């Protein structure tokens, strides 16, 4: 059996030597045009809504629960969503290494003023920076 396996691998080597890895004509053909995430809505649409849904009502399935933002009393304190975004919570990953302070402030302000929420005390990038952990959650 080993001899057959060895011979089949040996026979396939010339095919591997002549094949070339797939490549695109340009980087944009592979990853598309990367758009900056400047507004809270931009961040929400590209980062959050996959789990929390376009209407902010969350979802349940596959053994996971994605909390709703719609009418969520935990959003009354702007510090809570900032903490969760930066450090993760339960099944939610942390984004402190991915999102900048202004992006976190913008998305927190967005979810606190949309989906039936009316918390108008805006958080600033400086407020977010003050909550940023000294080390990433991955390093802790």
UniProtKB/TrEMBL annotation:
Q: Name one GO molecular function term.
A: electron transfer activity
Q: Which one Pfam family would you cite for this protein? A: Cytochrome_CBB3
> What PROSITE patterns does the database record attribute to this sequence?
CYTC
All copies of the Cytochrome c domain together span 35-115
Question: Which coenzyme or cofactor does it need?
Answer: heme c
Q: Which domain of life is it from?
A: Bacteria
In terms of InterPro entries, this protein maps to: Cyt_c-like_dom (IPR009056), Cyt_c-like_dom_sf (IPR036909), Cyt_C_IC (IPR008168), Cytochrome_c-type_DH (IPR051459)
Keywords for this entry? Electron transport, Heme, Iron, Metal-binding, Respiratory chain, Signal, Transport
**Protein's UniProt keywords contain Acetylation:** no
Keyword Metal-binding belongs to the record: yes
Signal sequence segment: 1-24
Name of the featured protein:
Alcohol dehydrogenase cytochrome c subunit
Source species: Komagataeibacter europaeus (Gluconacetobacter europaeus)
